[in-house]
């Protein structure tokens, strides 16, 4: 899809400085721009590239003044960075504006859907599924029986939504996500073998939640695993059965949360954090990457380490840890001198 400089200026409420009819069909970095691409200049350290870029159109601040000849057409806006971000959002909407039902796909006779849906090829929608308006289900996705998807939900290719899951409005489920698989529930018998504990609960994902690629959210043993409004989950996160994550909490990749743990709202959890089960983490908690959390955490704490310590205590302790070999050497010297005295 191609856009002219005039069309782009209209979207951004900008002014064209150059060829109004020039067309672009691709985005690029300013240093990698080529004919037919659009770029932007915001950071002053990239200013030299505007005189060499081959991009057809460059978005700049209105205050920009060229000190040398340029070949790119300029679109002048109040804030180039914000304008380019707006354009990315618009471009993404256009790119993802798919509608209709592709074949082959399966849509149960007992399932219902709203207006303007997209159902990609080889996708499966089970019995009694309820799908809202403007939902997009990409190829090879699986939507199990009795699932509910709210309005403006996107389920990308290859995602699996198990039965009974409830997903709210404006949610994004990326490729490879598995929502509603069995929780890790087994109990040993007298022979030392493990018998499976049936997992008959579900997963509830509230509005405006993003779930990154490869993340798994297990169904509850009883009741629900709950991901509350505004939560953002990175790729490859494990959320176990009966976990609850509070509003607007953000969790980075490769974090694992064991069963029945409750996490508060507005928390920020770094990558590769391990959290044990059956504990409570308060609101506004910050957990640094690769920390291990094995206790309840109060509101507003910042933690680091494994087992995690208060962030300030960890940094003070780490100074001593780094110097431990020298400290031991001094201690050994003192002991020898004491023995020889």
From TrEMBL:
Reactions catalysed, as given in the entry: a UDP-3-O-[(3R)-3-hydroxyacyl]-alpha-D-glucosamine + a (3R)-hydroxyacyl-[ACP] = a UDP-2-N,3-O-bis[(3R)-3-hydroxyacyl]-alpha-D-glucosamine + holo-[ACP] + H(+)
Active site: 241
Limits of the UDP-3-O-[3-hydroxymyristoyl] glucosamine N-acyltransferase non-repeat region domain: 22-89
Membrane-spanning segments: none
CDD domains tied to this protein: LbH_LpxD
InterPro entries attached to this UniProt entry: Hexapep (IPR001451), LpxD (IPR007691), Trimer_LpxA-like_sf (IPR011004), UDP_GlcNAc_AcTrfase_non-rep (IPR020573)
Root EC class: transferase
MF-aspect GO terms: N-acyltransferase activity; UDP-3-O-[(3R)-3-hydroxyacyl]-glucosamine N-acyltransferase activity
Keywords: Acyltransferase, Lipid A biosynthesis, Lipid biosynthesis, Lipid metabolism, Repeat, Transferase
A biological process from GO: lipid A biosynthetic process
Pfam families in the record: Hexapep, LpxD
This protein's GO CC annotations: membrane
Keyword Lipid biosynthesis: yes
Pathway: Bacterial outer membrane biogenesis; LPS lipid A biosynthesis
EC number: 2.3.1.191
Subunit comment: Homotrimer.
HAMAP family: LpxD
Family that this chain belongs to: Belongs to the transferase hexapeptide repeat family. LpxD subfamily.
Function statement: Catalyzes the N-acylation of UDP-3-O-acylglucosamine using 3-hydroxyacyl-ACP as the acyl donor. Is involved in the biosynthesis of lipid A, a phosphorylated glycolipid that anchors the lipopolysaccharide to the outer membrane of the cell.
Protein name: UDP-3-O-acylglucosamine N-acyltransferase
Record organism: Cochleicola gelatinilyticus
């Amino acid at each position: 899809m191609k856009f002219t400089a005039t069309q782009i200026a209209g979207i951004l409420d900008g002014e064209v400085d150059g060829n109004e009819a020039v067309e672009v069909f691709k985005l690029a970095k300013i240093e990698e721009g080529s004919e037919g691409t659009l770029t932007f200049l915001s950071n002053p350290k990239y200013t030299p590239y505007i005189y060499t870029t081959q991009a057809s159109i460059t978005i700049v601040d209105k205050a920009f003044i060229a000190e040398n000849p340029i070949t790119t057409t300029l679109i002048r806006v109040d804030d180039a960075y914000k304008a380019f971000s707006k354009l990315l959002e618009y471009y993404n909407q256009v790119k993802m504006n798919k509608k209709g039902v592709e074949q082959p796909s399966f849509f149960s006779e007992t399932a219902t859907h709203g207006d303007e849906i997209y159902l990609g090829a080889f996708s499966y929608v089970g019995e009694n599924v309820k799908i809202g308006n403007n939902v997009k289900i990409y190829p090879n996705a699986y939507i199990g029986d009795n699932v509910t998807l709210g309005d403006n939900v996107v389920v990308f290719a290859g995602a699996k939504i198990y039965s009974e899951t409830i997903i709210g409005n404006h949610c994004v489920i990326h490729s490879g996500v598995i929502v509603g698989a069995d929780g890790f529930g087994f109990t040993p018998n007298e022979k030392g073998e493990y018998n499976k504990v049936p997992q008959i609960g579900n997963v509830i994902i509230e509005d405006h939640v993003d779930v990154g690629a490869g993340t798994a959210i297990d169904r509850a043993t009883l009741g629900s695993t709950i991901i509350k409004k505004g939560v953002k989950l990175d790729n490859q996160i494990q959320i176990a059965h009966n976990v609850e994550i509070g509003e607007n909490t953000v969790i980075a990749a490769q974090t694992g949360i064991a069963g029945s743990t409750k996490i508060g709202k507005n928390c920020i959890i770094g990558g590769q954090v391990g959290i044990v089960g059956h504990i409570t983490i308060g609101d506004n908690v910050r957990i640094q990457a690769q920390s291990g959390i094995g206790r309840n955490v109060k509101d507003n704490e910042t933690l680091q380490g494994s087992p995690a310590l208060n962030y300030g205590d960890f940094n003070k302790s780490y100074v001593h840890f780094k110097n431990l070999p020298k400290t031991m050497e001094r201690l050994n010297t003192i002991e020898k001198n004491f023995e020889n005295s």
